[in-house]
Amino acid sequence: MNLKEKPFYLSEEQVKWVENTLSSLTIPQKVGQLFCVMGGDYGPEELRAIVDEYNVGGVLYRPAPAADIRKWFEPLDEAARVPLLKAANLEEGGSGGLSDGTFMGWPMTVAATDNQEMMEKFATVCAKEGQAVGINWTFSPVCDLDMNYRNPITNVRTCGSDFDRVKNFCSQYVRTLQGYGMAACAKHYPGDGVDFRDQHLHPTYNSLSAEEWYATYGAIYQQLIADGLLSVMVGHIVQPNVAMAINPELKYEDCLPGSLCKELLTGVLRDQFGFNGVITTDATIMSGFTQAMPREKAIPSAIAAGCDMLVFTTGFYEDYQYMLDGLEKGILTKERLDEAVMRVLALKAKVAGNQATAQMPAEAKRYQAECADQCVTLVKNIQDVLPLTPERFPLIRLMTFGNDETIDGSMTAIAEELLQKEGFQTERFDIEKEEMHGTKELSPQRLTLYLANCEHASNQTTIRLFWAKKHALDVPRHVEEEPSIFVSFSNPYHLQDVPRVKTYINAYSCHRPMIEAVISKLLGKSEFKGVSPVDAFCGLPDTHL
Questions:
Q1: How far apart are CA 195 and CA 149, in angstroms?
Q2: Cα dihedral sign, 119-218-233-207
Q3: How far is CA 185 from CA 56, 142, 270, 295, 391, in A?
């Protein structure tokens, strides 16, 4: 293994540190290096002991105030025999690592600007704000293609469904972020977004043919590897056609999720694509991993198949012992263990010595506003209502769906405040007061503004609009008689549930600057600039009507 070449490009001194550190570690200490644990799962003293006694390789804290994260890492740094990989999910800005960081928006927000310079700004915020608390490793970018609009977990976490845009934007993210000295970890190899299900709940499938996969997902990873990508996160996603092409003796029913599949890890990533960086599993607490084989076998098998690290455990002490047992049983060889630990150490030599910066970038809020202005997409507009004016529509009725609370407060309250400042009267829809009525009671001076913030999330099976049990009185029923506009802030596919709405807008993320950008465009104060990264019409002919 040549650590002086791509992707580590270590100096002679760094290579010697890796080699000397590896030779100084006992087998139990090497095993510890294979684990990245969730810091919040343990009390401070227990976590310090795990770092000290078990020599774990990395720690991730869920977002918390920057001052707290710095404080939590201090005793761990003191206890660590080998510098720690300090991980975060910087998918959406600094807020993915620290609660007082900037929520730039989900990746599709950036992709909808159709401006790679915006991805450069996005990655800059991720890197600088993460480094402000010592984070040196991020589980991003999300390199999945959102090919199935029913998928509940990829959605706006991706840069969309267009292969070129996903490849180019993810490439920009990796080059920018790693240019600041932080390690990127592209995910979720072999690729999410084909299946309509969630790998958190069971193994899912990337069912593309081998030819289609190499031309899309495979080509994205090859581009990122060429860019110098330092690590890859492997999902609990089965790609049977590629695996069987590598190993013709493999049967469909025997194909394993990527995190356990030697054909995909060693056969494709290592041998075909020449990737020499760190390969880590996605969280091993996910059912996509736990359902594939007994955990006692799965833990060492993931490393034996080609992974170098395991992310998050259902029980660290148990999994640590399973790894030791796997060595004793021959599931995992000492040679494969040394190879995995050498790559982990090489990644640490590359990024773990970088010092935390004291300040977060001052330009982050400006970038956030620029991104919001450029991404808002007018998907459908077949009625004459824009721009809105108080003279034409003195009353705006606000109807909200999903999560009204944002990082900046109530979505409805923010929209109401902005509209009232422009001279509109507003009212909020109240299902308890609403009764079934005909169309003669509709006011010609009222426009209904639907605001939806139905967010993607793991462990759910769908992202759909669910209507009130009371006669579905909140559904856009009278679209031919009452003017209405539907704005989605978190899911670009709501037209499947409101196909006859005549004006539909996608905004991809929900925070105050985004709401401000939407209202500004509704009033005609700024242009709609966004370019949809997906088929917002969901392939349904009636959504165009």
A1: 9
A2: positive
A3: 19, 9, 16, 24, 52
Q: Are strands 237-238 and 204-205 parallel, antiparallel or unpaired?
A: parallel
Q: Quote the pTM value.
A: 0.96
**Predicted pLDDT of residue 440:** 81
d(CA 301, CA 522): 55
Tell me whether strands 409-410 and 405-406 are parallel, antiparallel or unpaired: antiparallel
Peptide bond into 541 cis (omega under 30): no
What pLDDT is recorded for position 447?
A: 97
The Cα 29–Cα 32 span in angstroms is: 5
> Is 282 an active-site residue?
yes
- Three-state secondary-structure class, residue 269: helix
Q: Could you give the 3-state DSSP secondary structure of residue 146?
A: coil
**Which residue from 125, 117, 220, 106 is spatially nearest to 180, judged by alpha carbons?**
125
Say if residues 34 and 320 touch (Cβ distance below 8 Å): no
DSSP designation for 471:
T
CA atoms within 13 A on the CB side of 58: 31
State mean pLDDT over 432-459: 89
Going by pLDDT thresholds of 50, 70 and 90, the confidence category of residue 356 is low
Neighbours of 17 (CB within 10 A): 18
Q: How confident is the model at residue 444 (pLDDT cuts 50, 70, 90)?
A: confident
On the question of pLDDT at 189 being above 60, the answer is yes
Q: Is residue 476 a contact partner of residue 450, using CB atoms and an 8 Å limit?
A: yes
Q: Annotated catalytic residue: which of 282, 319, 373, 497?
A: 282
> Does pLDDT of 355 surpass 80?
no
